[in-house]
């Protein structure tokens, strides 16, 4: 697990006026919470935060958060959520959850594929139904992505949660028939895409 450094300041005051003032000064209002602490209101530099998201994405992102004036030099946190404006041009708020690297957490991880399915060569279309999957595991065990081999898929086949093995240390808390990937017939085929997905479709 790679920890990305981020600095934060404890912020005073709450409400829209305070939040607007922070954003005007190129900072993002944030909150830090955890199982053994009271929530703390923070601010982080907009540039630092946006650069982290630009380079690493926001899914399954663990940070080494250093808060000025904190009793700890730094805290291991998960970026639990963040908000942007309607046009996704500005960051409005961020939520950080302090985690113990040896205690399991729930985290969203992107889905990726490898291999070329025979069904694609036959004209079928590979559809990733779920771009992200929820995993429950220790932070140190979080993979960069859930990489699924599609090299055995024919037209009409699908991959469900029950078909994905990430090892004993990682649990996917979705129903076993939760459809993740399907290979549908080409457009205009007599067999519809809906018919191509079996009963496991959510």
Task: Quickly describe the structure.
By secondary structure, the protein is mainly β. 14% of the residues lie in helices and 40% in strands. The protein has helices spanning 16-24, 46-56, 118-121, 193-196; strands spanning 4-10, 27-34, 37-45, 62-67, 75-84, 91-98, 105-114, 125-128, 132-137, 146-149, 158-160, 179-184.
Describe this structure in words.
It contains 4 helices and 12 strands. The chain is mainly β. It is elongated. Mean pLDDT is 88; it is low at 191-202. 14% of the residues lie in helices and 40% in strands. The two termini are 32 Å apart. The protein has helices spanning 16-24, 46-56, 118-121, 193-196, and strands at 4-10, 27-34, 37-45, 62-67, 75-84, 91-98, 105-114, 125-128, 132-137, 146-149, 158-160, 179-184. β5 and β6 form a beta hairpin. It has 2 domains: 4-98, Beta Barrel (Ribosomal Protein L25, Chain P), CATH 2.40.240.10; 105-196, RNA Polymerase Alpha Subunit, Chain A, domain 2. Strands 1-3-2-6-5-4 form a 6-stranded mixed β-barrel. The longest helix has 11 residues, at 46-56.
Helices and strands, with pairings:
Elements: E1 4-10, H1 16-24, E2 27-34, E3 37-45, H2 46-56, E4 62-67, E5 75-84, E6 91-98, E7 105-114, H3 118-121, E8 125-128, E9 132-137, E10 146-149, E11 158-160, E12 179-184, H4 193-196
Parallel strand pairs: 1-4, 2-6, 7-10
Antiparallel strand pairs: 1-3, 2-3, 4-5, 5-6, 7-9, 8-12, 11-12
């Amino acid at each position: 697990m790679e920890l990305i450094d981020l600095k934060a300041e404890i912020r005073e005051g709450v409400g829209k006026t305070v939040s607007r003032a922070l954003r005007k000064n190129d900072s993002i209002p944030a909150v830090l919470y955890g199982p053994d602490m009271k929530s703390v209101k923070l601010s982080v530099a907009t540039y630092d935060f946006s650069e982290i998201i630009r380079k690493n994405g926001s899914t399954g992102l663990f940070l080494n958060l250093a808060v000025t004036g904190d009793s700890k030099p730094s805290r291991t946190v998960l970026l639990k959520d963040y908000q942007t404006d309607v046009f996704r041009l500005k960051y409005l708020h961020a939520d950080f959850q302090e985690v113990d690297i040896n205690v399991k957490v729930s985290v969203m991880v992107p889905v990726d594929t490898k291999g070329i399915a025979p069904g694609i060569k036959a004209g079928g279309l590979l559809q990733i139904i779920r771009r992200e999957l929820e995993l429950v595991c220790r932070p140190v065990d979080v993979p960069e992505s859930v990489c699924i081999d599609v090299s055995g898929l024919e037209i009409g086949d699908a991959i469900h949660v029950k078909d994905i093995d990430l090892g004993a240390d990682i649990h996917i808390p979705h129903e076993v028939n939760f459809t993740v990937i399907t290979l549908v017939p080409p457009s205009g085929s007599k067999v519809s895409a809906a018919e191509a997905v079996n009963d496991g479709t959510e």
